## 1
Amino acid sequence: MPRYHKLSLAVIFACAAPAAFSSEHSEKVLAALQAGKAHVAQELLIQYKAGAGANAKQRALGKIAATPAEVLVAAHQRRDKRGDLELVRLPQGKSLQQAIAALSADEAVAFVEPNWIYNHAATSNDTYYTNGGLWGMYGDGSSPANQYGSQAAEQWAGGNTACGDVWVGIIDEGYMYNHEDLAANAGKNPGEVAGDGIDNDGNGYVDDVYGWDFAGNDNSVFDGAGDDHGTHVAGTIGGVGGNGKGVAGVCWSVKLFNAKFLGSRGGTTANAVKAVDYMTDMKTRHNLNMIATSNSWGGGGFSQALQDAIGRADNAGMLFIAAAGNDAYNCDSGSNCYPAEYPNNNLIAVASITSTGAMSSFSSYGKTTVDICAPGSAVMSTVPKSSKGKVISGYASYSGTSMATPHVSGAAALYKALNPAASHTQVKNGILAQALPTASCNGKVSSNGRLDVSGY
Ligand SMILES: [Ca+2]
Ligand SMILES: [Ca+2]
Ligand SMILES: [Ca+2]
Ligand SMILES: [Ca+2]
């Protein structure tokens, strides 16, 4: 059970020996623990070195009396020739700090880190159907108009509403794939036969038709009205347009696919790594035109394991689009804006602006660590709603860098659809190069501007 360990850590740190943590990785982990970043109690992720066999692993774990819980990335499945990435558990009362120190010094271990806990990057408000709720899709030349919107409506006016066979992976909560404004865009695993109890495509997950639920470890990615955050994200990327109801996403047609790892208590590094790898495998195994994953979450501290997983997505030609966070941090100053601030080339970190072009008061930013601004305040989108004991299609206005991020994920899909030969790197560079200079974003994000999809 995830627990927040701020108090006990403060005590542990008072007597930790700094000399034991010489590597840059250990220092980052240490600093994040010291800052009280949430993590799962008595759990660690261990990256073993190549060739570390059963005996070497057993000897290492013996030092801290730990027991193996799960192999997250198996050595024999890796192309990078590194060892197992493994989740382990420590006995009650064992100091996480001392365990990290002992394992970091072990010759079989490349790195060791806590199992961080991530949370949604959203702050919901309860204003439904507010005026100009879909402003994030408007352009200066659309009707209604808003120059601070993503200008998606101008592409639509030019006939570019469809994102064709492009897929976007939603790494978040579950999303309501049978929502009236999403169902037509719900991607299905092309290698899986539903409900036969067999893992038809051999990816390790049985009957994963709409994706996989890593929080519940089952194939029901949508589990009810609690999956509102993931459903809201989905509607901004690919709400069905032109059907006379609800909202429209940046792409009116696109293939949405889901790796659920955020539950009611947030998500963990262990499940985030599995979720990212699941999408990477899905793209390569089935040769899907999956341009990006959309990641509206953050928290915890630096994780080499998660950064490595983002790197594997990069190698597979996929962008990782991430929310900058809702703490109003300057992410350039060591504020732990993870995963947004990882330096991976395939990552786009997104800050939030309001409908009047100001940076949203909650939005984190960073001239070197954050890349672009996008609409994130008072954004209308799809949500599940409870009504008379049933879950029905609904709509709501939310605010957060969580809402800004899927505007960019949708933009990546649109760019890829309009420029089919573009590599994922070219898609990223195109999105950033066409950002519109914006006063509130100047010096706050690397592009100095806001999302503008009209020139793709
Ligand atoms: Ca499967
Ligand atoms: Ca099956
Ligand atoms: Ca489930
Ligand atoms: Ca609609």
## 2
Amino acid sequence: MNYPGEFHKLLTLDDIYEGEAKLVEVNRYEILVVNIKGEIKAYYARCAHALGLIESNSFDGEEKIICPVHLWEYNARTGESINPVGSSLFPLDVKVEGSDIFVKVPSVPISEFKVKWFGMYRQRGVINEFGVNS
Ligand code: FES
């Protein structure tokens, strides 16, 4: 995903075991970091349905992230919605260097991100304008 941002060290691998998720806040961005059997993923922690907060216990420890508000389900590896289909969490870029986990946090103000980036991304019909394959 090509969005404006900078990498921030958020956690180390010792902070998040396999099957765990952690909710971290940076510059007013709520970020869910997930460890899926050793694969680290990160998402803007707001649900594509009605912006419910995706808490750390929303990860089932295996393959799903389930929004606690109305129970929309997402594939933890891709962020794509499973039930219902046709939407997605906003994936954030991750890199792991040694045991340090870096996440690319958007550099635009959160209000702009919600409208221009996340707002558009939630609607799959316009995802491709931002270079994301649907
Ligand atoms: S806000 Fe997440 S399912 Fe409604």
